[in-house]
Amino acid sequence: MSSDKTDLQPPFTRGAVDIIERKTVYDGFFKMHKLRLRHRLYRGGWSGEMERELFVRGNAVGVLLYDPKREQVALTEQFRIGALEREAGPWCLEIVAGMVEVGESLEDVAHRELQEEAGLEVAELHYIRSYLPSPGGSSERMHLFCATADLSSVEGYFGLADEHEDIRLRVLPLSALLAALDEGAVAIDNAASIISLQWLQLHRDRLCG
Fold first, then answer.
1. Other Cβ atoms closer than 10 A to 192
2. DSSP state, 119?
3. Alpha-carbon distance values, 170 to 94, 112, 174, 202 (Å)
4. Which of 34, 110, 188, 202 has the most CB atoms less than 10 A away?
């Protein structure tokens, strides 16, 4: 009897990678490791030794804020150094987000960042999914949530001055954001926001209760 379920698991796991040497080559606001390694090959045997640089980033949490009554979404707008050469400029629209610190749960981070970047406390978080933003060179894993809230009077300026944060919280119609996604507009061009908005497009009916 055939099954509709397709096995998506690769034939190799972590044990198929031999780390010969690992060095910390930069240790600042971010960390960079240099690794010498080899790994198993599909055709059998081992690869030759190779060097790879790894951007050590850890876990991050992102939260999409949605007002089901008004069908509005709140997004942060702030300067991003990685978008310095972006055609539309380095101020980006994004979901609320932050890094997981030692001893924090994912939910702890979500609530902390909602307070710091939006001045909000929410009762419930809806888990979306987690993913690797750039597995070709970074260890970061992003965990996404959606939170519902009354967004009627939340626009303003937020962020921690001692972390050089200058964050503008904007409330926008969900319909306009979904249209921008459909058109491929550069206004929304980061993975966490795109994934979260597409999830909301599929699941918003169950958030209205």
1. 22
2. -
3. 10, 19, 12, 23
4. 110
Rounded distance between C-alpha atoms, residue 166 and residue 39, angstroms: 44
In the chain the domains, ranked by start, together with CATH numbers, are 14-56 (no CATH), 59-207 (3.90.79.10)
pLDDT in tens, 102-140: 999 999 999 999 999 999 999 999 999 999 999 999 999
Closest CA to 191 of 101, 54, 31, 62: 62
pLDDT digits (tens, 9 = 90+) for 3-48: 567 889 999 999 999 999 999 999 998 899 999 999 999 999 999 9
Each residue's pLDDT tens digit, 66-98: 999 999 999 999 999 999 999 889 999 999 999
- Among 77, 87, 117, 163, which one carries the catalytic annotation? 163
In the residue annotation, 94 being an active-site residue is answered as no
